[in-house]
Amino acid sequence: RWLIPGLADMHVHLEHLPDPAILKLFLGHGVTQVPSMDGRPFVLEWRERAARGELAGPRIVTAGPIIDGSPPLRDDNLAVADAAGAREAVIAQRRAGYDFVKLYTNLSAEAFRAAVEAASDAGMPVAGHVPREVALAEAIAAMDSIEHLTDFGDALDARPPAEARPFHWSKLLLAQPIDLSKAEGVAARLLAHGTWVVPTLAEPERRVGRPEDIRRWAALPEMRGVPETALEFWSEQVQRSGARLDEDEWRLVERGRANRLALVAALHRQGVPLLARTDTPNPFLVPGAALHDELALMVEAGISPWHALAAATRNAAAFLGEERQWGTIAVGRRADLVLLAANPLVDIGNSRGILGVAAAGRWWDEADLEAFRVALRVDASAGPRADGSG
């Protein structure tokens, strides 16, 4: 038997299903720590109840509602029009008890700077997307983590600026022509400022797919725990995206996949600290199970199983400033642990073979975990929605 630290999925969206049964899915797949990237009052309540052992699930830290510009990119983001509004939003989130701030795409440069300053004054980390009005170098210097590889797309574009289109859907998948030699300069900036990178490799893998892909994803073992309404919604969403593509565009999808794997490998070689996050519950990313897909993709990119596991354990604890509390197995650490049937350092797929989980002072065996993996189907009245949460 092989013991590893409890896993951390460092980018999840709990707000999409206000039913605590979703927490059991994480635990059923060995995930004992999550940050919710778009907070709600009920997530704060779950955080406290999970910490007291009243809810079976991972430990939770949570951002407040996503802070975006006006108009916001998504209707349920918190829109701020100027610097004053950004400062007020951060202060209100600190008073409400949220742990960190998430910034988004449509923020003005003025509002971005005010939000970062207010978060620093409040002692709150800053994560999120690089706003369109903010230069990548400025965002790297200001933010604690950058959440998606696509935020580096413009900095790596292989075409001269005059030839580069300002936006095309392929950029959402990092599918434009890129120059990987530029990754060294990006990595140097990230390292200089101690900024973490979140590849979120699994989410774009399942954002668009052919009919045979959708059928294969829907038949995966972890889908047993997903309500039929969610599977139907996911299938329709992905099918709708793929139906618009011709063969040339499908080649762009393939190029995006190759680019993402090559970029995460290049950043890793330069020593940039990486975190394992999934963006669940976007299409076919089942809470908890999706983290194992993320680890497999990191290894496919050329990262060793040891470093992939570190991204979901030791690195996650270090990012939160809690490396002396959890993320490694040692005397005095929190007993958040996962027992495996086989060695994940030989085959990262062995991380899925979970025999038991210890978390919050309790031990759950295989039978417990199997029940957790289908808890959402049993308990939830509606499935998770997926709308490109990011």
Structural class given helices, strands, pairing? Answer: alpha/beta
Strand share of the residues? Answer: 5-15%
Helical proportion, percent range: 40-55%
What global shape is seen? Answer: globular
Q: Main sheet?
A: 4 strands, antiparallel
Output the radius of gyration.
20 Å
Distance between the termini: 36 Å
| Number of H- or I-type helical stretches | 16
**H-E string:** EEHEHEEEHEHEHEHHEHHHHHHHEEEHH
Would you identify the regions where 5 or more consecutive residues have pLDDT less than 50? 381-389
Strand order of the largest sheet: 1-11-12-13
Q: pLDDT average, as an integer?
A: 93
Number of strands: 13
Write the layout of secondary structure elements.
Layout: E1 2-5, E2 7-8, H1 21-28, E3 31-36, H2 41-51, E4 59-62, E5 67-68, E6 78-79, H3 83-96, E7 101-103, H4 109-122, E8 126-128, H5 136-142, E9 145-146, H6 153-156, H7 183-193, E10 196-197, H8 202-205, H9 211-218, H10 228-243, H11 247-269, H12 289-300, H13 305-311, H14 314-319, E11 337-340, E12 354-359, E13 362-365, H15 366-373, H16 375-379
